Each structure stands twice: as structure tokens, then as C-alpha cells.
Amino acid sequence: MAEEFRKHTNTGADEDLLKLDLDEEPVPQEDLSVTGTHKSHKKKKNKALYPLLIILLLCVMGYSGYQIAATVIRNLKAEAVYNNIENQFVVEIAPTETEPSPAETSGELTKPVDETEESVALMTVEADPETEPPTTTAAPDPMRLLSVDFTSLKKANSDSVAWLQGLQGYVSYPVVQGKDNSYYLKHLFNGTVNANGTLFVHCDNNFLQDDITYIFGHHMKSGKMFGHLTDYRSRDYYYNNQELRLYTPGKIYTLKPFAVVLGVGTEQITLNYAGAQDFNRGIQGYISRSLHPATVSVSYGDKLVCLCTCSHLQDDGRLFVFCKIMNPGN
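Given the sequence above, the corresponding C-alpha cells read:
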């Protein structure tokens, strides 16, 4: 916002007074009393300003504290909502475990004895608890398969279309599709007004049937929603996180990132291309702009999903992570 400055014209007396402060030449002895009076008056004015400056500083600190507290409370409320949704409608599928051998169940180890020409025998020895390696508990797998109760999820919110999992476990959220592209920017899954919003599909998308399905989410400083999507700017992260999962009522889709593109909010979004030539030209354009080389080939007929969030590297910046559906079909 432009500031307006008021011009002030000094009178002759004002100019003389200013010279008392700015003139580098010694002040005559007879004028010392006048100078002392002026400086004393100036000190009094400065002292009078100190309380005002302290009050102003306290106001700024109070407002900043209020904003920080409000942000923390907002994030905690959003986290509570999504944790509750996940606890209600999502269950981790335990990995298949192989049947243990009799030796394993009895606490015994088997080891071969010296081979001879006649035979090879096995003998059993008691396991020594002092020499056994300590048992360790494996960390939970952030990409363990999930089972989503879409019937109940849709009862909770009829806009539900999918569940997205990935980004080393930081993303495990429901995905909705509303009537416009603005409502879920400021509303949680349960309809509560909250700046964290909800992951949502472009309102004009024919979900997973168009050439590209776009899923949007906020880049939250807390790391929630798509706060970690910008980690794909790192080449190591890109190569080490080459799988996301999109759960739908009928199928679990594997998404493989192949292009990480920086753009702006006015970026033209194309849901469908006119044909193979336009599709190849458009996708090749994204691949050529990508921060990293493509790890999978893409051709006309492939179904793609693009994850989009804000990027603070430029004004109105956006980050697009284009993914190929590796197991399309019904």
C-alpha cells in the first residue's frame, strides 16, 4: 500500500533551530543556554515516546502470539478430525506370515555335521539364550496395504471417491470431489471450516476415466495434507518414493511418479487431449520441464493422476507431480 508523505515548510526560526542540531561549528557561548533548553526539551519528548513504543511492541508480540496459537489449534483440530476418520474407516492389512518350522516353535536350532561318503546326518542342539541375537520389533510399514470401508465413508461424506496413501506415510487421507474447486479448500471432510481443507479431485474430472485426473491439496507448514509433496523436488526423495496408492471402492491403484513440474496458479490444466498426437505433445512438454528424468514410459491410452499443491519458490507457484496408473482397468 502506497504511503503518503506530508510536506512541511520550515520557517526561518525552524531553520535556525535545526542548525543548532546539525551545524558542526562550535556554538557561541551566549547561545548555550538556548541550546541546553532545546536539548532538554527533546530528551523529555523522547522519554515520553518510550511508553508508547513499549505498548506498541507488546501489541505486536501479543498479536503474533495469538496468530501462532490460532494456527496450532487449527492444525490440532484438523488432525483430530482426520485421525478419527482413519480410525473409523481404515484398517491395516497384516502381512501374510509363513508357517514356522518345528525347530522354530521348539526353540531348537538345526545344524549339519561333517559329511561322509556314506550319509549326511542332522543333529539338534539347544539354543543358547546368551548367544541368541536380541529380538527387535520392526517399525510399522507406512505403505502397508489398507482396507477402506467405503460404504461407511460415503455415509459420512457422499463426496468421497478415494483414499490416498503415500509420501512415506505422511499422506493417508480421504479424497473427495465437490461441485466446485473452492469449497474443500477451506472445509474439512466433515464440513468444518478449517484452512487445512481436504484433498479433492478437480470438479470437472470424470474420476480416473479422463486422460489426467487432478487431485489438489494444501501445502501446510505443519506437513499435513500435501505439506510433504514438495519433497519430490529432491532427486533422492523422487527415486526412493516411486509408489503411491489410490484406494477406490472397486480397486487399489498403484501410482508411479514420472514428472515433477514447477508452475503457477494460472497454469492451463488439461483433463483430456484431442488424440494421440496432442496427448504425446502435452505429456512430453511436462517431462521436458520435469526436475528429474522420467522413470517410466507414458503413451496415449495410459491413465494419469496429477497431485498438485502450492510452491513458495515463486509468486503464486504450484508443484505438479504427474503419476502413471500402473494397473488400470476395472
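Residues 32-89 form the longest helix (58 residues). Try to locate this feature in the C-alpha cell string yourself.
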